Amino acid sequence: MNNLASFFNHFFITLSRYCTPCHCHHCDTPIIPMSSRYALCSDCQKLCTPKPSIMNTPTHTIHATFEFTGVIQTLLHSLKFEGNTAAADHLIPKTTTIPTADVVIPVPSHPSRIRHRGFDHIETLFRPLYGNRYYPCIQRIKKTPPLYNKSAENRKRLLRNAFQWNPEYTHNCKGQSILIVDDIYTSGSTINAMIQCINHHCKPTAITVFALCRKL
Ligand SMILES: [Zn+2]
Asked: What is the DSSP string of the chain?
């Protein structure tokens, strides 16, 4: 029975691919064209409902909006690797209270990655939320490989001297509260390297982290 249902489901999806031009990017269900700028079916849109969480580590507090799974993973992948900036529409939290501070500092991508993508995905996600409090004070001067599968010691070694402070922004940040923003929070190594850089160059009153997704 299940096989028969699965066959008809597959048949319907294949047939409809030829009859309708638009499918959900996540589950492939046929949808009405242009029902959203980045095509998601209504079921997958419901899965984009924010699930805010707060986590404390010895060095910082992290606010996250989503868990890095399912449709959220598809959306972020599409934004970062397929250049689909419309995917950000579903990722930018509109319904939850977002953390705030005097100054918002993005975790930078390496300039070569931004050139390759043609846009800065962190800026696409967060500048609309924070406007003129968004200061790209830190540059990534070392291209690091993905860190999620590296040991804590290796992550620390790879991130050594990865970030450089832009002194133009020092007067904007000194004695202010700071919010670091990033797309995915995994081990905290990148954030710890950012915090070290910030503490070294300006003495903030507080540092908080806001990650769109938390990788469990
Ligand atoms: Zn779907």
From this structure: -HHHHHHHHHHHHHHHHHH-S-B-TTT--B--TTSSSS---HHHHHTTS---EEEE-SS-EEEEEEESSHHHHHHHHHHHHS--GGGHHHHS-SSSPPP--SEEEEPPPPHHHHHHHTS-HHHHHHHHHHGGGB---EEE-S-----TTS-HHHHHHHHTT-EEE-GGGHHHHTT-EEEEEEEEESSSHHHHHHHHHHHHH---SEEEEEEEEE--
